[in-house]
Write a structure and sequence with these properties.
Elements lengths: L5 E6 L2 E7 L13 E2 L7 E6 L8 E7 L4 E5 H4 L15 E5 L6 E11 L2 E6 L9 E2 L9 E6 L13 E10 L4 E5 L14 E5 L5 E10 L14 E5 L16 E4 L17 E5 L8 E6 L14 E5 L10 E3 L17 E5 L8 E6 L3 E2 L2 E2 L2 E5 L9 E4 L17 E5 L8 E6 L3 E2 L2 E2 L2 E6 L6 E6 L17 E5 L12 E6 L12 E5 L11 E3 L17 E5 L8 E6 L12 E5 L10 E3 L18 E5 L8 E6 L2 H4 L2 E6 L12 E6 L17 E5 L8 E6 L12 E5 L4
Parallel strand pairs: 10-15
Antiparallel strand pairs: 1-2, 2-15, 3-12, 4-5, 4-7, 5-6, 6-9, 7-8, 8-9, 11-12, 11-14, 12-13, 13-16, 14-15, 15-16, 17-48, 18-19, 19-20, 20-21, 22-23, 23-26, 24-25, 26-27, 28-29, 29-32, 30-31, 32-33, 34-35, 35-36, 36-37, 38-39, 39-40, 40-41, 42-43, 43-44, 44-45, 46-47, 47-48
């Protein structure tokens, strides 16, 4: 008898009715044979939806990499849910036999190979993956299947069961098997069950994955056949990062702090790293300026989530809200839009500054910031700061807190904080301004006001002075009293008589603050031409890319159209020096092998500087979040010594696609929209943290994610 969704096959000349093995309506999984012995820890149960709830289903998968679970395609794709990546699809988790808590699945590739799908876990599991057999199945060979499907007497077993089979026929695309010594077959929930070959040295290797079977012996089934169809793995093409995790990656999202994700939370719109509890492990802070708060989670005010670092990677996230300092959560506050870290109160612990550029102060939408103090217990006491608190005036549209940068600008040993207000009115013109708060044992206090006049420029409407900030020892002494210099982006600036192409201003640090002797830089003479809409200075970072002791400036130009190429974006590196900056040189996506300058890429929208290669030179990560309809792309340019053969210290190295980090390109993911770098695993190399604020896991809304990359550079 052949039932719905059945296929009649020939196994050794005997007709066998087989049925797809994905279970529905509950969390079934396993063969009706004996409980599998120890040694099969790589077999996992995949659960779609809430186990036991209407419409939920489960099946089996096999761990083939630290975060990669291979399963049958009919496990991931059903008639009712043809697209597992659809936010309306069921949420997916995976569970080890030895674990009580499920592991979150953050991506599903339903067609990784014919008949097979790949589920991607949010973090590596500490189980040795199954090894793939290099030799195909042979006729009359005995193989064992291990699955979590229904048994002869249990609908939803909690342990995998083992059944033996004999190969009747084998081709490069299908293996037909008949029941072996156990006399039992496979059941609903066993889709994706591995067919394993025992090894003389002990253990087993993966030969094939079950996709369909006659369900003889299964509870509730009247089938008489126990024959099985399986997909061989020996001839599979190389699966992307399947047998290794080249970037030693972790994926973080709102569920990692114990809260369900909400649409448009923009988790990952800002990222930062610092050791807030001084345990020697950098922690990760992730801004979600569109996240919802309130008793009903109906107020899109924004949050920040902090993940404590450790030997086993980031811990459970802790959400920070404005209520921590008695501020109201209001829609549009955009709390978490920007982040910066530094020891602002000089107590030896890193503190976290958070921008909320949409905050309403009184009745004026002027923006504000908050500072959370570090301590042995992590971030604790919090304080909100607006311009009124600093003896200044809050103005509508100021966007105070839209950008942040930390550095010791006056050389007193305490970290100061620069706060950008690109919408600030000066002389009736909305040109922008930067407020610098001085650090000290009592915390941050008003320090200085910085605008373009300090660099010999004019404050003009639309300059957006302060839209981006950075800090570093770009000029001056490298020993003794070393001052951090303040770098300010004004992407709406019209240099001299040129159009609104953008500009960057460098204000040297000094005991009296970074307020005078500013240096203006634009594209003219620095590898480019000033053109309207270039947005030179929209993003900034500093790093010592040539290891000469002075920080160099990376400038983003996400609106640039290089030569006759479309508006893809570029970047410029301006070398630091003793008394003045050097001539800037350009960086483009097309410089990298496999890269191209494509319209809307937004190359240069975000930066992070750090020594990811471990050679002593700072390297530069560049985000291109607009690439491929907003899916996003990340580029690595490495630092090095300048020579005749290498006239520029920053040179192209590689591009990193979402597919390289277990992701899938989807419109609006914005992978690379925010970047940070720190040595998260203490291996002596900087790791990268990349925000993807439009990303969503299967069955979850597009709330955003943050991805850490700790190897592979």
């Amino acid at each position: 008898m052949v039932r719905s969704m059945s296929t009649v096959v020939r196994a050794g000349g005997v007709a066998a009715a087989v049925v797809a093995l994905a279970a529905t309506g509950g969390a079934a999984v396993s063969a009706p044979g004996a409980v599998a012995p120890a040694g099969y820890e790589f077999v996992m149960r995949l659960e779609f939806g809430t186990p036991g709830a209407a419409g939920s289903r489960a099946c089996t998968g096999v761990l083939i990499g630290p975060r990669a679970v291979l399963t049958a395609q009919n496990c991931a794709v059903t008639v009712a849910q043809p697209d597992p990546l659809d936010p309306a699809a069921a949420r997916v988790t995976a569970r080890l036999r030895s674990a009580t808590a499920p592991v979150r699945v953050v991506d599903v590739r339903p067609d990784v190979a014919p008949g097979l799908a790949l589920a991607v876990l949010d973090r590596p599991v500490r189980v040795t993956p199954a090894s793939r057999a290099a030799t195909a199945a042979a006729v009359d060979e005995a193989l064992d299947a291990v699955g979590f499907g229904r048994t002869a007497d249990t609908w939803i077993p909690d342990q995998p069961h083992l059944a033996s089979f004999v190969v009747r026929q084998a081709t490069g695309t299908q293996v037909d098997l008949a029941p072996g010594a156990t006399g039992t077959g496979l059941c609903p929930g066993d889709a994706g069950a591995p067919l394993l070959r025992g090894l003389p040295s002990g253990g087993a290797e993966l030969v094939a994955l079950a996709t369909a079977a006659g369900q003889n012996g299964c509870l509730g089934s009247a089938e008489q056949s126990g024959d099985v169809l399986a997909r061989p793995v020996a001839a599979l093409p190389s699966l992307p990062a399947a047998t290794a995790d080249p970037f030693d990656q972790l994926t973080l999202g709102p569920p990692d702090s114990g809260v369900p994700p909400v649409p448009a939370a923009e988790f990952g719109a800002a990222v930062a790293t610092a050791d807030f509890n001084k345990d020697g492990w950098p922690d990760i802070a992730v801004g979600a300026p569109g996240d919802r708060t309130g008793a009903n989670r109906d107020v899109a005010s924004g949050t920040v989530t902090v993940f404590a670092g450790g030997a086993n990677g980031p811990g459970v996230g802790r959400r920070l809200l404005q209520t921590a300092f008695n501020a109201a959560d209001e829609a549009g506050d955009r709390f978490g839009a920007t982040l910066a870290t530094g020891d602002f109160n000089k107590d030896g612990y890193a503190d976290l500054a958070v921008g909320a550029p949409g905050e309403v102060v009184g009745t004026i939408k002027a923006g504000s910031i908050a500072v959370f103090n570090g301590s042995a217990a992590g971030l604790s006491a919090a304080r909100g700061i607006d311009q009124n608190d600093l003896g200044r005036t809050d103005g509508a549209g100021d966007e105070f807190g839209r950008s942040l940068a930390a550095g010791d600008f006056n050389g007193d040993g305490a970290t100061d904080l620069a706060v950008g207000s690109p919408g600030k009115l000066i002389g009736g013109l909305r040109s922008g301004q930067v407020t610098v708060l001085k650090g000290g044992t009592a915390g941050l206090a008003f320090g200085w006001i910085v605008d373009q006049k300090g660099a010999g420029g004019a404050n003009e409407a639309g300059d957006l002075f302060g839209a981006a900030l950075a800090a570093g020892n770009v000029l001056g002494a490298k020993t003794g009293t070393v001052y951090a210099d303040l770098v300010v982006g004004a992407p709406g600036e019209a240099p001299a008589s040129d159009p609104q192409a953008g500009g960057v201003y460098l204000f040297p640090g000094a005991a009296a603050g970074p307020v005078t002797n500013g240096v203006a830089v634009n594209q003219n003479g620095n590898g480019g031409v000033n053109e309207a809409g270039d947005r030179f200075g929209a993003a900034l970072a500093t790093g010592d890319f040539n290891k000469d002791g002075w920080a160099d400036i990376a400038v983003g130009i996400p609106g640039e159209s290089p030569r006759t190429d479309p508006q893809s974006g570029t970047a410029t590196v301006v070398p630091g020096g003793n008394t003045t900056v050097g001539k800037g040189y350009p960086l483009e996506a097309r410089d990298v092998t496999g890269g191209a300058n494509l319209g809307g890429d937004g190359f240069g929208s975000a930066f992070a500087a750090g020594d990811v290669t471990g050679d002593g030179y700072a390297d530069l990560l560049i985000g291109s979040p607009g690439r491929a309809a907003g899916a996003g792309l990340l580029y690595l340019f490495t630092g090095g010594a300048v020579s005749t053969a290498r006239p520029d210290s920053v040179t192209p190295a590689k591009l990193i696609r979402q597919a390289d980090v277990y992701g899938t390109d989807e419109d609006g993911d914005r992978f690379g929209a925010a970047l940070a770098a720190a040595d998260l695993n203490r291996d002596g190399k900087a790791d990268a943290v990349a925000g993807s604020p439009g990303e969503g896991a299967p069955g979850e809304p597009d709330a955003g994610m943050a991805i850490s990359l700790s190897a592979g550079f």
